[in-house]
Amino acid sequence: MKQSLLQKELLGVATKRYAANIYLAEDYLKSRGISMEIARLAQLGVVAEPEIGHESFGGRLSIPYITKTGVVDLRFRSLNPAVEPKYMGMTGAETKMYNVLDVERAGDFIGVCEGELDTITVSSCVGFFCVGVPGSNSWKKHYTRLLSDFQRVFVFADGDQAGTEFARSLARELPVTIVQLPDGEDVNSAFVKYGAGYIKEKAGFQ
Question: Is 53 within 8 Å of 14 (Cβ atoms)?
Fold first, then answer.
């Protein structure tokens, strides 16, 4: 269902208000290797005072999905996932590709990640243009068309069965190079442990 201008406007307003509270997540983001500068560039925020309809997202990290036309979706990540659901989304929202602005910025190749924070890690911390999907089951056919002009698509596969299967499924549709992370690791955890050089080396860029 197509979004109305009012819906987009409300998402944009919420994004700005939550972004003003990003300092509340500074320690959490630091533990993930994400600086406040990068967090602000991604317009991440914290739901300190929920907008109408966002009451169930209080205290969560807000992650806006930004396109050329503005904010088209918001997802919310728990800052304490041990005691509550890790991710929550807007009621009735359709799954979208994250960080799509990198499609236009990229040259001959682009990366694909599972998860928004992993995508931010590759795109902004490692410096490798990258898009993402919320999970391994979130890929849609038109994403394939969106990436079909790239000479190479690097899929950063989480070190679990779902991550491996996700990468293999994309390899059947696109000219893919699979960057397999170690067992139990994802891009962000590997970046925190080993640094940007490790991720580049895994992808063959050093």
Answer: no
